[in-house]
Design a protein that fits this description.
Layout: E1 21-26, H1 31-40, E2 44-47, E3 53-57, E4 60-67, E5 71-78, H2 83-92, E6 97-102, E7 108-114
Antiparallel strand pairs: 1-5, 1-6, 2-3, 3-4, 4-5, 6-7
């Protein structure tokens, strides 16, 4: 089931590169809840599997899939200049996470852990 189809499309510069961001959203059992929060922040969302969603804005496209009983996996492509913005968005949405960002040669550039504020 699609959550929304009307958000901005990914900038073509980020459509060709391999995935450069991956992570885990802790304490989430349902990827549809994650998708709904992103839609509320102005992103588009579409179903990508039985339980997964592709989330997109003009600077990032990620896929979220449930993993076990308490986590959701995240992977996709993000504008390298906006990696921190993705982390801040996850914090603002109350989604505790661990993220890894790599360059095109699979070299780890940074890791971050976010916790919801409040």
């Amino acid at each position: 089931m699609d959550t929304a189809n009307g958000g901005p499309e990914l900038d073509p510069r980020w459509a060709a590169p391999d995935d450069n961001v991956c992570g885990v959203l802790h304490g989430c059992r349902d990827a549809s809840v994650v998708a709904a929060r992103f839609v509320g922040a102005g992103w588009s969302s579409r179903s990508s599997s039985w339980h997964g969603y592709e989330l997109e804005t003009d600077w990032c496209r990620i896929e979220v899939e449930p993993a076990g009983e308490r986590d959701v996996l995240l992977n996709g492509v993000v504008d390298p200049d906006r990696v921190d913005e993705l982390g801040r968005l996850l914090d603002r949405l109350g989604l505790p996470c661990e993220l890894e960002f790599e360059d095109g040669d699979d070299t780890l550039l940074c890791e971050s852990r976010g916790r919801p504020s409040g």
